[in-house]
Specification:
Elements (H helix, E strand, L loop, with lengths): L7 E6 L3 H11 L4 E6 L2 H11 L3 E5 L7 H11 L4 E6 L4 H7 L6 E4 L4 H27 L3 E2 L2 E2 L3 H13 L6 E4 L6 H10 L8 E5 L5 H9 E2 L11 E2 L1 H4 L4 E5 L6 H13 L1 E3 L6 E3 L3 E6 L3 H6 L5 H7 L2 E4 L9 H17 L5 E2 L1 H9 L5 H15 L4 E2 L8 H6 L3 H7 L4 H6 L4 H17 L7 H9 L4 H15 L4 H8 L3 H12 L1
Parallel strand pairs: 1-2, 1-3, 3-4, 4-5, 8-15, 8-16, 9-12, 12-15, 17-18
Antiparallel strand pairs: 6-7, 10-11, 13-14
């Protein structure tokens, strides 16, 4: 981010050479890089090529209205702060310009002090807006159909936002059910091709001998059953996006034809010698490890490097912390409305299971679980006993991960993590001390002192228990909190106090 003292590019749009020279004199000793334009078209050319940070805009121009330029900047959402320069008689017009995002207006004749103060305020305002936008990006709850605010998903959102406007190929990897097709649709919807077709082709769902025809089409009589000419996905996606899902399932022979198609943009229908040319943007996805497929000879290396331009790795649901509950609540609301049920929330025991379960089927499995329990039950809150297999076994049979963890936590640590941790831990420590010394009434004072020295401070016991839980959960604090039966905010608060 630029500071106020760094060179800031300012465009001065004023048709009067005399006034332009005066304003330039006002700014000559300031840390600004001043560009000047004498008409609207010249200003638009500078805006579209250099995008200055601030525009000093005169509304009365020889070739167009200054309002037209302001409306253009507003419509294109350009990061330009506009300051209107206006005569006294056009103040009403300048105020109207505020509706299109003008930052301020200065009445003519322009005073040097007023101009400099306005420019400094404009720069500070822009800096503050950038900071706010950055914080908003770090805390997005949803994005193009995705739900979740975890750091893993914030990274995915930023990559998609940056990659979508280009024509570069996007290569999506992730486990089944993580939302790879939704990710591909997001790339399409955020691109300039959004009004053109989005064609998805699942390479694993089509027999190998029909795959070439599905992609490139065929002419009449090309093979048995080809009773008429047919367009393939490549022609249907012309001008838009072609999404090749489960790409690593594609036959090696067809991979070479796909490579030529990507390189040249041309293809031949099955049974035809005619070359056809299309303009498509490629997005592909796989739930396998593509480099491993290349190493084991199942996927062409040259095709991999042609497609692997912008990689997007979708995290598994178990790696997304509280996103699990955010998605579950959204699905619960949607499916309950669809089925005419009254469910509106999850009970604490159900949330505990949801955060502790591994979700091998990811979001697809989560959706199926919620649909199952909504259809088969009637209540206002989802409880753990409503959950279908294997979640019901997970919750009723001692909650496997919780058991394995708590077995390794000392009774003192368990007590330290309870709701009444201070009093319970003090009582537990006292009982522990009594057990150690009750049968040794004859011990001397040295033995008692040695026994007392083995007791750790309460905060340290609690700290060890929390750190042990976080380590056991691979750094997943919400999951660790669920296993310790406290809220994640409790852990965050305690970690902060230890740091201080």
């Amino acid at each position: 981010m630029k500071s106020v003292t760094e060179k800031t590019q300012i465009l001065l749009l004023e048709d009067s050479p005399t006034l332009s020279a005066i304003y330039a004199g006002f700014l000559s000793k300031e840390p600004y890089d001043l560009l000047m334009a004498g008409n609207g078209q010249a200003a638009l050319d500078i805006i579209n090529t250099q995008c200055p940070r601030i525009l000093l805009l005169d509304l009365n121009l020889p070739d167009m209205s200054g309002m037209d330029i302001l409306k253009y900047i507003h419509k294109q959402k350009l990061p330009i702060v506009v300051v209107i320069l206006t005569a006294h008689g056009s103040v009403d017009v300048a105020v109207d310009a505020m509706r299109y995002g003008a930052f301020d207006f200065i009445s003519k004749p322009v005073e040097p002090k007023r101009l400099l103060i306005t420019l400094r305020n404009a720069i500070k305002n822009q800096q503050m807006s950038q900071i706010i936008d950055e914080y908003r990006e770090l805390d997005r709850q949803d994005f193009c159909g995705f739900i979740g605010s975890s750091m893993a998903m914030q990274g995915v959102y930023r990559i998609l936002e940056s990659a979508a406007p280009s024509n570069a190929t996007v290569f999506i990897t992730g486990e089944s059910g993580t939302g790879k097709e939704l990710c591909a649709e997001s790339v399409h919807q955020l691109s300039a091709r959004k009004d053109k077709p989005f064609v998805a082709l699942n390479c694993a769902a089509i027999p190998k001998d029909l795959m070439e025809s599905e992609i490139f089409g065929h002419v009449k009589g090309a093979f048995t059953g080809a009773s008429s000419e047919r367009k393939g996905a490549a022609a249907l996606a012309d001008g838009g996006t072609l999404f090749l899902d489960e790409l690593c399932e594609m036959d090696l022979d067809l991979q070479s034809k796909i490579l030529r198609f990507i390189q040249s943009g041309t293809f031949q229908k099955v049974g035809s010698s005619k070359q056809e040319k299309v303009d498509v943007r490629f997005v592909c996805a796989t739930n396998r490890e593509p480099l491993k497929e290349v190493q084991e000879g199942r996927f062409r290396e040259d095709l991999y490097y042609r497609l692997h331009v912008i990689p997007v790795v979708l995290p598994a649901l178990r790696e997304r912390g509280n996103d699990i509950l955010q998605i579950a609540k959204k699905l619960l609301q949607s499916i309950s409305n669809e089925e005419g049920k009254a469910f509106s929330r999850f009970a604490a025991d159900a949330e505990h299971v949801f955060l502790s379960y591994g979700w091998p089927g990811n979001v697809r499995e989560l959706e199926n679980v919620i649909r199952n329990l909504v259809v088969l039950n009637n209540a206002e809150a989802v409880t753990a006993d409503m959950l279908p297999a294997p979640l019901n076994q997970f919750s009723s049979s001692t909650k496997q991960p919780a058991t394995s963890f708590t077995q390794s936590v000392t009774p003192v640590a368990e007590a330290a993590m309870s709701d009444n941790s201070e009093q319970t831990s003090v009582n537990t420590l006292a009982a522990s001390s009594a057990n150690n010394s009750g049968d040794k009434s004859g011990d001397n004072s040295a033995d008692s002192a040695e026994s007392s020295s083995s007791i750790m401070p309460l905060w340290l016991v609690e700290k060890q228990a929390i750190e042990q839980a976080i380590t056991a959960c691979d750094g997943n604090i919400p999951k660790a909190a669920a296993l310790l039966d406290v809220s994640p905010s409790t852990i965050y608060r305690k970690k902060q106090s230890w740091d201080e």
